[in-house]
Every structure is written in C-alpha cells, then in structure tokens.
Amino acid sequence: MHRGTNIAEQHAAPKQPPPKKATRSQPARVLRGDGYVAQVSDVRVASGETATATVELQPSRVWKFNTDYPAQIALSGLSFAVTPKLELRSDELPKEHYQATSGGLRLDVPVVGKAAGVDEVRAKLRFGVCGAYSCEVRTAVLSWRITVE
To answer: E strand or H helix at 8, and its extent?
Structure first.
C-alpha cells in the first residue's frame, strides 16, 4: 500500500490525453430532398495544396440510385480555390473520385487553394433515381464553404 494516497486515488483510471479535434471544420451540411438525402462538408486547404470536397447522396424511402444515368455537378462561387472543371459528369471522372451503387453515390471534387480567402460554393447536382415502376431525374442544390489559408 502506498503511503499518503487513499484507495480511490490508487484505483482511479489513469489520466487520458484530451480527445483530438475533428479534422473537418464543421459538421456535414445536410439537404433532405424529395426522395434523397445529400450532404457535403466544408473544406480547409492551404494555398497551392489540393483538398477534396466529398458529396454524398442516399436515396430515401422506395427509391434506388440509378447507376445507369450519369450524375452531373455544376459548381459556382469559386474565387479563392479552383477545380479542374466547373461542370463534372460521373462518367468522365476517374473511378477513385466517383462511387455509385443502387444505395447511393459518393463524388469527390478535387479543389486547389489559389489565394487566401473563403469561397461560398454552390453546387447543382443532377442524378437519377428509380422506384418500382419508373425512373426520374432529380436536382439537389448544395452549398458549402472552402477556406483557403
């Protein structure tokens, strides 16, 4: 038995370091639309460096994502960051930037920091969903922030 300590101190859990801070600047921005849920997180990138904005989409209720219809995203509001193209189609992207199943879609949009500042990005995402008897094209308008440091 150690002298000068009480039983509670002897059996207390060792002190843990504080939890690491999240790497994303804010929680995902979520858009709930008619038959789908879409989300994207704000991005931080250093000037001259590359980062990725990941757009995720999941159909809801009875809908399935239509993998035969190419998803399209059109970006606007970029001043301090650049992307290879302002309009991207899923069938033109490398496989590592696009994954789609009937259960949803993940689209990685590469951005390069150009100069220090904050962009309020607006993205218009077009995609197809199918139900038991028909398929439809839907449009989701998302927004997120890109902070270039």
So the answer is: helix 7-11
Give the residue among 12, 125, 146 at the shortest CA–CA distance from 71: 125
**CATH class held by domain 29-148:** mainly beta
Residue with tokens 């039983």: 7
Closest CA to 140 of 120, 130, 128, 126: 126
pTM: 0.72
With residue 11 as reference, give the H or E element that holds it: helix 7-11
Q: How many other CB atoms are found less than 10 A from the CB of residue 23? A: 7
The predicted-structure confidence for 83-98, as pLDDT tens digits, reads as follows 888 888 888 878 888 8
Buried b (16+ CB within 10 A) or exposed e, 27-64: eeeebeeeebebbbbbbbbeeeeebebebbbebeeebb
